[in-house]
Amino acid sequence: MQKNITTSVATFGAAVGALGVASELQADIVDLTFNPGSVAFDTVGSVITSVDINELPGSVDFGQWNDALGKTLIFASGTISQWGFVSSNATIAPGTFAGGSFNLAVSAAASGTGYLGFRTIAGNVGWFSVDFGGAGNAITYTGGQYGTMGETLTIPAPAALSVLALGAAGIGRNRKRVA
């Protein structure tokens, strides 16, 4: 009888320990926000906007044009070493990321969601999504993640992003209701 209790307690302890390790690994992946979160269409012409990725160390930023000439993103070479368009469900690993384009340009009429993967000078990777908005409309940064400790990241499928957003909205609504 004593042996069974000891085995159960040891198994329970291992399960709790495994949960602790999993949550610790997730703590090294941060959600990204942008300042500004949206870049308006420039009717004056060819004015660059600096966009900061708030959660990244070292003031990681990039430049953004959004005008009749096109929608162009240019990375700051002092903070980002590589970046490029990637697909949803893409896996980005620090040692295998194959970005490298200094400028990422699409047409002035570009619309829909695009995903960008990047690697910082420190060697960590991240991704973010962009809603290009269409001709004459703002470009909006809709989220992303960054691994602070060399993690490999997988970009969720668009449906998974929607489910996560709905889940977050539901949590917020439940909290308001309880309060």
Shape: globular
List low-confidence stretches: 1-26, 160-179
Quick one: how many beta strands?
13
Q: Write down the Rg.
A: 20 Å
How many domains? The number is 1
Class by helix and strand content? alpha+beta
Number of helices: 2
Series of H and E elements: HEEEEEEEEEEEEEH
* Average pLDDT score: 77
Strand content: 35-45%
Summarize the biggest pleated sheet.
Answer: 6 strands, antiparallel
Name the helicity range.
Answer: 25-40%
Through-space gap between termini? 47 Å
Task: Describe the structure in your own words.
The strands form three sheets. Strands 1, 3, 7, 10, 11 and 12 form a six-stranded antiparallel beta sheet that branches. This protein is globular. The protein is built from two helices and 13 strands; from the N terminus they run αβββββββββββββα. The longest helix has 25 residues. The protein has one domain. With 179 residues, it is α+β, with helices and mostly antiparallel strands.
Task: List descriptors.
disordered C terminus, 179 residues, 26% helix, alpha+beta, five-stranded antiparallel beta sheet, six-stranded antiparallel beta sheet, 2 helices, disordered N terminus
Which helices and strands appear, and what pairs or packs with what?
Blueprint lengths: L1 H25 L2 E3 L2 E2 L2 E2 L9 E5 L7 E7 L2 E6 L4 E7 L4 E2 L10 E4 L6 E8 L4 E7 L7 E9 L5 E2 L3 H21 L1
Antiparallel strand pairs: 1-12, 2-4, 3-12, 4-5, 5-6, 6-9, 7-10, 8-13, 10-11, 11-12
Summarize the structure.
The chain is an alpha+beta fold and 179 residues long. The protein has two helices and 13 strands. A hairpin with a 7-residue loop joins strand 4 and strand 5 (61-67).
